[in-house]
Design brief:
By secondary structure, the chain is α/β, with parallel strands linked by helices. It is 53% helix and 8% strand. Strands 2-3-4-1-5 form a 5-stranded parallel beta sheet, with helices on both faces. The longest helix is centred in the C-terminal third of the chain and has 19 residues, at 265-283. The radius of gyration is 25 Å and the shape is elongated. The protein binds zinc ion.
Length: 310
């Protein structure tokens, strides 16, 4: 996959390409940003380019190094991931053994530490030695979506690259390239600029659509009584596995309509509060169906003029 096939973060791709072209590649980078915005893809393509033996051709993929890289068989490249919940000191030590062996195919060696914030403190301290005295051929890329868990001593040794969430237009482009049908503009809002989120949502797109239909009926006052409300929001009862996400979507839908209907601002705000309350209850394992019942009663109260408390 070449840089131009990876959507978003153009400036970063450009800077990394320049570092390669000008031979100003640093020994250690930290790629920071939320999940699902291309940090891993860009890190991996950056690695391929660093190791490539034919730098004239930006999209080479045909030299010995690229061929080995593309078949996950390049001895000068290593990715490490959490083993269970953490990246342990033993993993860092194993990596370090490889760090100090000279490159075989290329004239550099690249190491990617994914979810690097999951390194134990011990592991981070061990890594620090390598960051402080890197062999001249070494490049390490730490990837993280939660840099707070990385030691300052580690962070200060890395060139920090901040990845930004994708625009809705970029998400749409990705969707159409990957045959993902975006049924509602509000789905784009829900993605928060993350392709990872889009893919997660797409797995359950029918549930999101049903929820949106329910919310629209409610807002357009097409629901006559609580039975109809429960019926229209049946998807909430059926979606225990993704209920937190669906409730977040319900919040997004409420916010979208707040701006359109200023006079009704309060009932939307009250509903959002109820949704948040329900999310908390469900986290603390309150009876599932009862929590949804309760939410729908409260929502119905807000949106049914006759029952309205105000
Ligand atoms: Zn190559």
């Amino acid at each position: 996959m070449n840089f131009n096939e990876i959507i978003g973060n153009s400036k970063i791709k450009q800077d990394l390409q320049e570092a390669i072209d000008n031979n100003t590649i640093s020994h250690s980078y930290m790629f920071v940003g939320i999940d699902g915005i291309g940090k891993r893809l860009i890190a991996k393509e950056f690695a391929r380019k660093i190791l490539c033996l034919n730098k004239q051709d930006k999209n080479c993929n045909t030299c010995d190094s690229c061929i080995k890289f593309n078949s996950s068989n390049n001895p000068d490249y290593l990715e490490i991931y959490p083993d269970g919940n953490s990246i342990k000191i033993a993993q860092v030590r194993q990596m370090q053994e490889k760090v100090y062996q000279k490159p075989i195919v290329s004239n550099k060696k690249v190491f990617i530490i994914d979810d690097s914030e999951k390194m134990t403190e011990e592991a981070q301290n061990a890594l620090l030695k390598t960051l402080e005295e890197p062999p001249e051929y070494m490049v390490i890329i730490l990837i993280t979506s939660n840099e707070n868990k990385l030691l300052n001593t580690v962070k200060s040794r890395c060139i920090r690259i901040n990845f930004i969430p994708l625009t809705q237009k970029e998400i749409s482009t990705y969707a159409s390239k990957n045959q993902i049908n975006i049924t509602s503009q509000n789905i784009l809002e829900m993605c928060g600029g993350s392709i990872g989120n889009l893919e997660k949502i797409n797995e359950n797109i029918d549930s999101y659509n049903k929820l949106e239909q329910g919310v629209m009926k409610l807002i357009e006052e097409k629901l006559k009584n609580i039975v109809e409300v429960m019926d229209s929001f049946n998807i909430l009862y059926e979606s225990k596995d993704i209920i937190q996400d669906l409730l977040d979507y319900m919040t997004v839908l409420m916010y979208v309509h707040i701006s359109k209907e200023k006079d009704y601002r309060q009932k939307f705000l009250n509903t959002i509060r109820q949704i948040e309350e329900t999310k908390r209850r469900l986290y603390s394992n309150t009876n599932y169906d009862m929590s949804i019942d309760n939410l729908l009663f409260k929502v119905w109260e807000e949106f049914n003029e006759n029952n309205s408390r105000s």
